[in-house]
């Protein structure tokens, strides 16, 4: 039985939709890994302090070296290493409250020298990164791999010692906004997570046209989250899960116990505002896209139905006209 034009259009549309979903399924799964529930153990800052028991000697072994890393690449005035006043105040709190820690502030020159000396195989990738902030992000990870210690963004400060965090072989931050964060990191040197993380970076460091995507997937928070999930998928069953330190504007956890937060987002580009809204409203965004797809499908189906009826009527009217003309012509012949 032959299908009507409207049904044929519907079947074709459904088949195309199934094909598109099949082709996009790997990408959909990738997005789900980045923005879905995260692996690892969540730890609030008050919990970390309580476990440390400041008034007693903590029996646990400290595995993170007492090194603090910060990075300042002055894009507006290269060569000027003077921090903006608000960042300098935050920096001062870190140094004052952690006097026993070695402090390292990395600039453009020392950053590149580090790669040249320690990871020359990555230097060509580092030099060709499409966005400047990618150099900052990627340096963080290699510092964690090589030195270990604690990395802190310049827009974060301290209001107590970092000692409570020295017991976690790897930790990063979870701000509760879909993907994980990389503003504060901690590690023991050469941990398998950071080795896997940095070994896979070169493949993802490319230009994705949209600056925010190039930054986020080419070494930023999306890449970080993807590697985090991959590590937990692949690690031996006996290895413990890694730690997510709850921070920033998470709606449930107290974010003021160890760290403070100042002015940030110095790297945001023209497309950042749109992405920021989308990630802050993940559920609404997905529902909106779904409703749009359904509405578009209904509109297309309705249009096809109308066009199908129009074509049938046109063909039928044409037949009627031809039949009428034949009847009139025959009637005229018979009348003669």
UniProtKB/TrEMBL annotation:
The keyword Translocase does not apply. Gene3D superfamilies: 3.90.550.20. Keywords: Membrane, Transferase, Transmembrane, Transmembrane helix. It comes from the Eukaryota. GO terms for molecular function: mannosyltransferase activity. It holds the Pfam family Gly_transf_sug. The chain crosses the membrane at residues 12-35, 286-307. InterPro entries: Glycosyltransferase_domain (IPR051706), GlycoTrfase_DXD_sugar-bd_CS (IPR007577), Nucleotide-diphossugar_trans (IPR029044). It is found in: Membrane. Its main location: membrane. GO terms for cellular component: membrane. GO terms for biological process: mannosyl-inositol phosphorylceramide biosynthetic process. Belongs to the glycosyltransferase 32 family. This is Glycosyltransferase family 32 protein. The lineage of its organism: Eukaryota, Fungi, Dikarya, Ascomycota, Pezizomycotina.
């Amino acid at each position: 039985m032959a299908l009507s034009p409207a049904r044929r259009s519907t079947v074709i549309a459904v088949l195309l939709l199934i094909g598109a979903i099949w082709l996009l399924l790997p990408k959909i799964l990738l997005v789900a890994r980045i923005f879905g529930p995260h692996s690892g153990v969540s730890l609030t800052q008050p919990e970390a302090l309580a476990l440390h028991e400041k008034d007693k000697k903590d029996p646990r072994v400290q595995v993170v070296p007492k090194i603090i890393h910060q990075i300042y690449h002055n894009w507006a005035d290269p060569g000027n290493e003077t921090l903006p006043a608000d960042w300098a105040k935050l920096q001062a709190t870190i140094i004052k409250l952690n006097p026993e820690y070695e402090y390292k502030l990395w600039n453009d020159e020392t950053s590149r020298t580090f790669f040249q000396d320690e990871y020359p195989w990555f230097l060509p990738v580092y030099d060709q990164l499409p966005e400047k902030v990618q150099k900052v992000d990627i340096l963080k990870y290699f510092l964690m791999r090589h030195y270990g210690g604690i990395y802190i963004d310049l827009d974060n400060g301290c209001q107590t010692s970092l000692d409570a965090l020295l017991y976690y072989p790897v930790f990063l931050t979870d701000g509760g906004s879909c993907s994980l964060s990389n503003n504060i990191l901690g590690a023991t040197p050469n941990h398998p997570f950071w080795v896997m993380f940095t070994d896979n970076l070169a493949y993802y460091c490319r230009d994705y046209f949209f600056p925010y995507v190039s930054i986020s997937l080419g070494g930023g928070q999306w890449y970080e989250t993807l590697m985090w999930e991959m590590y937990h998928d692949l690690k031996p069953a006996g290895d413990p899960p890694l730690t997510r330190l709850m921070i920033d504007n998470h709606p449930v956890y107290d974010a003021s116990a160890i760290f403070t937060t100042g002015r940030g987002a110095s790297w945001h580009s023209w497309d950042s505002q749109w992405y920021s809204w989308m990630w802050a409203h993940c559920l609404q965004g997905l529902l909106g896209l779904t409703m749009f797809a359904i509405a578009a499908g209904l509109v297309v189906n309705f249009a096809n139905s109308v066009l199908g009826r129009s074509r049938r009527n046109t063909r039928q009217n044409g037949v009627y006209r031809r039949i009428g003309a034949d009847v009139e012509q025959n009637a005229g012949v018979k009348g003669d």
